[in-house]
């Protein structure tokens, strides 16, 4: 048995078994990424789809995903590769790609406007070793790297990958412990700590998906934007007002089909409330 230190769960994983995320395993009394280099999805996307609006606008990026996740969002649009049982099945059929091969694929797409690699689709940081290795090689080849993450990782994981990450989109899914703990199976404090450090080492944009009946009040979006506005750089200078926030519309899917899609008018109203403190607020899925 060995302990995994990637996220707040700190799973104690028995020999030859996997942790909660479905991707980290124990072998020879050590924890390793069983999903290392196992790619379930790959596509050349507009950078705005990550979503990033203030990092290399108009460019395209090779998006890659593996399998597994350390949250259990009931509305997950990628549950086939994220939730444990389905994730393991996806992993069995995943294509195994070495970091060097991935970088070569990214370089071949430069004539089509590709600027680098985006680690996305599932939660990339549960396989942070592959992110680190591929991103480092990508930088050496003159490419840029984007991380799309739920932010549910301990700070040593962030420090391990951040030297090679140029931009991040991080989910700030809500602003109550209840929502994170009871609905998402996560830890709000872990995410807040991750974001507070990430903005000091990379370009960061944040995304909040507005789920009816969960995180859809003006009071909560004001609390989120006030907290973001208070973030500082490594020298203590206030930078929060410049951090972009994407407020996105929810659509019923997966295990949350009992809700209506978020009212578009509500999304616009929440965006206006966020603009009281933040300069760059964008609406999504409207």
Molecular structure report:
It is a single chain. With 286 residues, the protein is α/β, with parallel strands linked by helices. Helix content is 30%, strand content 22%. The strands form 4 sheets. Strands 6-7-9-10-11-12-13-14 form an 8-stranded mixed sheet. Strands 1-2 form a two-stranded antiparallel sheet. The protein has a two-stranded antiparallel ribbon with strand order 3-4. Helix 3 crosses helix 4 (128-140) and helix 8 runs parallel beside helix 9 (264-274).
Question: Which key features would you list for this structure?
Answer:
about 290 residues; alpha/beta; TIM Barrel; eight-stranded mixed β-sheet; two-stranded antiparallel ribbon; 9 helices; 14 strands; about 20% strand
What is the CATH architecture term? Alpha-Beta Barrel
CATH structural class: Alpha Beta
If you average the pLDDT, what whole number results? 96
State the secondary-structure class. Answer: alpha/beta
Task: Enumerate the spans where pLDDT stays under 50 for 5 or more consecutive residues.
Answer: none
Q: What is the domain total for the residues?
A: 1
Describe, in short, the structure shown.
The chain has 9 helices and 14 strands. By secondary structure, the chain is α/β, with parallel strands linked by helices.
Task: List the topology elements.
Layout: E1 2-3, E2 12-13, E3 24-27, E4 30-33, E5 38-39, E6 41-46, E7 60-65, H1 79-82, H2 84-92, E8 95-96, H3 99-108, E9 114-119, H4 128-140, E10 144-149, H5 155-161, E11 167-171, H6 177-184, H7 188-198, E12 203-210, H8 218-229, E13 245-249, H9 264-274, E14 281-284
Parallel strand pairs: 7-9, 9-10, 10-11, 11-12, 12-13, 13-14
Antiparallel strand pairs: 1-2, 3-4, 5-8, 6-7
Helix pairs in contact: 3-4, 8-9
